[in-house]
Amino acid sequence: MAAPTEFILLAGFLGSGKTSLLVDWLALPEAADTAVIVNEAGAIDVDGAILADAGGVPMAMLANGCVCCSLTSDLVFTIRALVEERERSGRPPFRRIVLECSGLSRPGPILRSLMPLAPLGLAIRVVATCDASQAAERARHFEEVAAQLAAAGTIVLTKLDLCEAGPAEALAAGFNPLAGRVVEADRAARARAAFAAAPPPLPEQPEPPPAILAHPRIAVLRVRFRDGASWEDRLDFLEDLAASCGEKLLRVKGFIRPPGPGVPWLVQAVGTLFSPPVPMPGAFAVPEGLVVITRDLDAAALGSAMPEAPVWFASDRPVALNCQAVPAA
Fold it and tell me: Where is the CobW C-terminal domain (predicted)?
């Protein structure tokens, strides 16, 4: 059975190197069978022109506007058109479709807009670029940076020729300890790691985290279920969590366990959009629990907002929960 087409949402703040990373990727032989969708907020499609200059890449341009706000229906139509045209040509499906977002886009609303595409069975993941030379300053002033980094499954540090990687890597870990980090000065190797590398296997033990650079508005919380919590309690909690946090919920990832000896189920969310839980036999030895990343909402405040929840909330240090991408909801 052929692997599902990957849909890679390439996020990252203005000037963080998204287009350069994508150009480097398209120059590699591994980029064969990649289609590209470009969304730029400006009236002149500069990024699209740069990528078109790479040559030979199936490409679609979205009209002027931010794809997470006014262009979601256009995005669904464009993806369907790419897939259907490929089928009509008699060629195998694309191996991947890359959406390069505007630097002001937030991944959550974009992922939510893809729900009508569930029948296509796309394997969705988010890659975010992080300008190592300006990461701390950007994160301090722009909420979009927090949303982009927290949503990512892979964070790619860029501009490494301008500064040391350590502080930016620590910042990225502080925002999202669940993401893999690509710290690679060689441009081709960086692009290959961002787009071509398979997600790493689930580790038996969490890897030691790097030094963490705390952010005053970002909280990384560990959620554990109380003894006696039922399967229904667990599912109800996930719904209540989204309702209680709203836009302050940036990312959720972890495992819940059904009663009895059943296998753990992987739970993932970007913003308030939850993917359907997926059974993960390979994670049988991993303890049950969730890592929740929030903005302007710490453990005490979340506990007060959900006093009846069958869980414990606590501040957390980064943990490794690397899992395969799952098909679109």
Answer: 223-305
The torsion angle over the Cα atoms of residues 40, 296, 310 and 253, rounded to 10 degrees, is 30
Q: Report the helix count and the strand count for the chain, using DSSP H and E.
A: 10, 14
Q: Is residue 270 part of a domain?
A: yes
pLDDT at 273 over 70: yes
260 phi/psi in degrees, rounded to 5: 85, -160
Distance CA 31, CA 27 (A): 7
- Structural domain including 272 reads 218-315
279-303 b/e (C-beta count within 10 Å ≥ 16 → b): ebeebeebebbbbbbbbebebebbe
* Residue 319: band (very low, low, confident or very high) from pLDDT cuts 50, 70, 90: very low
In the beta sheet, which residues pair with residue 266?
A: 255, 278
Would residue 97 count as lying in a domain?
yes
- 254 φ/ψ sector (left φ>0, alpha ψ -120 to 50, else beta): left
Closest CA to 126 of 327, 329, 325: 325
Q: How confident is the model at residue 220, as a pLDDT?
A: 83
CA distance 266 to 66: 31
**182 and 228 together in one domain:** no
> Whole-angstrom Cα distance, residue 223 to residue 220?
10
CATH of the domain at 243: 3.30.1220.10
**Is 328 contained in some domain?**
no
Contact present, 68 and 7 (Cβ < 8 Å): no
Q: Is residue 17 domain-resident?
A: yes
Over residues 176-189, the mean pLDDT reads: 89
Q: Do 191 and 231 share a domain, yes or no?
A: no
- How far is 273 from 252, CA to CA, in rounded Å? 10
